[in-house]
Amino acid sequence: MNGYCSRxxxxxxxxxxxxxxxxxxxxxxxxLNTAGAVLGLYALFLLVYVGGRSFVGPSFGETxxxxxxxxxxxxxxxxxxxxxxxxxxxxxxxGTLEQLYLSPIGFGPIAVLLSLSSLLVxxxxxxxxxxxxxxxxxxxxxxxxxxxxxxxxxxxxSTIGLGLxxxxxxxxxxxxxxxxxxxxxxxxxxxxxxxxxTEFVVLKLLPLTQGSYLLQRVMxxxxxxxxxxxAELSVLAFVGIAYxxxxxxxxxxxxxxxxxxxxxxxx
Amino acid sequence: MTENDDPTTDPIISVEKxxxxxxxxxxxxxxxxxxxxxxxPGTIVGLIGPNGAGKxxxxxxxxxxxxxxxxxxxxxxxxxxxxxxxxxxxxxxVLEGARSTYWRLTVRENLEFFSRMNAAGRGDERERIRAAIxxxxxxxxxxxxxxxxxxxxxQRVSLAAALVxxxxxxxxxxxxxxxxxxxxxxxxxxxxxxxxxxxxxxxLSSHDLHAIESICDxxxxxxxxxxxxxxxxxxxxxxxxxxxxxxxxEGALSPSARGEIERAYExxxxxxxxxxxxxxxxxxxxxxxHDLTGAMVAHGSQIESVRTLEGSLEAVLDSLxxxxxxxxxxxxxxxxx
Lengths: 267, 337
Prior knowledge:
Chain B: InterPro entries: AAA+_ATPase (IPR003593), ABC_transporter-like_ATP-bd (IPR003439), ABC_transporter_ATP-binding (IPR050763), P-loop_NTPase (IPR027417). The complex is a heterodimer. Chain A is an all-alpha fold. Chain A is 78% helix and 0% strand. In chain A, helix 3 (60-94) packs antiparallel against helix 5 and helix 6 packs parallel to helix 9 (230-261). Chain B is of the alpha/beta class. Chain B contains eleven helices and 14 strands. The two termini of chain B are 25 Å apart. The interface between A and B is large, with 41 and 44 residues.
């Protein structure tokens, strides 16, 4: 393969576009499956929304904006985490995990590209849900994408890190799906703790918490990205990158252990 | 080990003192136990052996999917354990037969996916995809979702997906498994063509000895993690062909003749027919067949016919009997004094 560079920008762009195209083709080919996933989340939102209105009464409207932003973040956090954590199990079941491992790009970079492609798919699901929620409630919130997107990306780095960690654990230890469900509850708690993190600073180190806090300010209070305190943004970036790097390192460790144990690709 | 006949050709795969050991239920299993071998470019090499012999582990270690416990694997000069992605630039594999592709995508979408994932910028993608589709007769199926295809067709899609990556080395685990006779023959023809026309090195493990005998230049017989025989398929079969003779004698075999034979040779089988007896005798050196017949005549046997038994890999494997042993060329053959 003279002159062939497996990690050239062309090769990386080609690979990520192949992954995104694959996901979109599968979503399009099985529309009921895709619609079912979005409608399931929408039904969950309706349950919270209708239930909240019934129990809390007219004052529920005051917290509606926070609920929508929180749910929007949960949908994307859950999608980014679950798509990655479950992906390796799915690929192993399909018999294609070994094919991904054999990519000349390398399995670690492939995991990063998978994160990137899952992020793109996650955004499409998140914004579709956001549109449904706003149409249903008639609520209006700030949709300053220049402020929202960077915060969401930095926030989701932590759940992508968790996804990589559980993906690696799946490759090495196989059936760890029982833990997947528990992590979802933890994610909800982390999002809910966003406002409390102003009092208990240590909470900012949890995944999603700082992002939840800043996203509420941007979407509900109309604060622009550049109006946020640099220290708050630095914490957001630090926590996101730290979880991502830790998740990636543990993913590499788990896949190395899987190779040593001869179980790569088994499920 | 087969010597590299052409000193100007470097081996494309080089394995040195390879050991792969796993912990299983509190005991260490040595799935590969001290294997040395070299594979020349453009050859088709078959890994043969019973279940648990270490074929798939060896194959996966060559691919970097399994880390060696000891020793080293180099592919095209690259240490696979240290730099797997560099080594992967030269290779493709079909390890899960029909399961190596995305069943929810069409044939063409799969080929495009694997080409873009693993071989971006390697020549004309459309031409590579067209060639792979043609080679495996997938033209009429190219827009079909893989899930709707038969097992044999899925197997062909997996092979096409590997080929579209333009590999120098192709690794196949049980490539003919689940294929009907026609499908198997078509596949064998494609693989030979691939090696001859494109110089692709093919390493395959299979229980299908007919396929290995038909297409492989070389057979490596594994048992219990060791190489017990490694030679050209022709030589492997010849060893057996010159080893076992069928002798038909008139009447029964006298005890004295039997004793004489058993002193120097091994009687593989002795079948008494109505008025004659058919013997299969392992003779380690073809020249000694005359000693054998002379001894039998001296003990009163009237020999009607002598012939060498048809060689086959199946017979070779039977004769090796898969006990831990020295490589074929060094180990004492059955019946030798």
